[in-house]
Amino acid sequence: MPELLSELGAAIRDRRIAQGLSQEVAASRAGIGLRTLRRLERDGQATTATLANVAIVLRCEQGLEGLFPLPPASSLDELLKRQAQAAPVRRQRAPRRPRP
Prior knowledge:
Order of helices and strands: HHHHH
Number of helices: 5
Number of strands: 0
Structural class: mainly alpha
Distance between the termini: 70 Å
Mean pLDDT: 91
Low-confidence stretches: none
């Protein structure tokens, strides 16, 4: 696991550099301390909130959504249940008040 975290940190550093951001600017925009960003880039050590903030600054937050996909549905019933849960909830309009 340390290798995976180191690779993640290196990828973050490379993306920051490719975007022309200094560590100071990236840390400031992410709302984290400079030492925190340095630790993230060096060791891959950070909280999930820090990782998400840095991903937003580096414009790669969309990739976070796919990190933990649900496994494929094992039955049609399960698939339908998931679809129903994902469907937007329709809001009902409040009844109109009678005018005086």
